[in-house]
């Protein structure tokens, strides 16, 4: 038996109650699984602990933004922000 395994396609209970953080974490977790990468591998590349990555993936609070950005970079993603204001209000 080898020491490697494939990522499980398993969702867990959200660690927080902020819908945006939960959605962000879910997207990062799905990207990791789509790439076939384990949490430990991504965490090591990003320079964070596996438990921090787990917290991010489950929408937990209290994680420094630079750690979230490092995880995104390890997953070959770029963080961007979108204006969600109603454009008709700006007239």
From TrEMBL:
Name this protein carries in UniProt: Helix-turn-helix transcriptional regulator
Coiled-coil annotated residue ranges, if any: none
Phylogenetic lineage: Bacteria, Bacillati, Actinomycetota, Actinomycetes, Mycobacteriales
CDD domains for the chain: HTH_XRE
Originating species: Corynebacterium suedekumii
Domain HTH cro/C1-type positions: 28-82
InterPro entries: Cro/C1-type_HTH, Lambda_DNA-bd_dom_sf
Region span, Disordered: 1-20
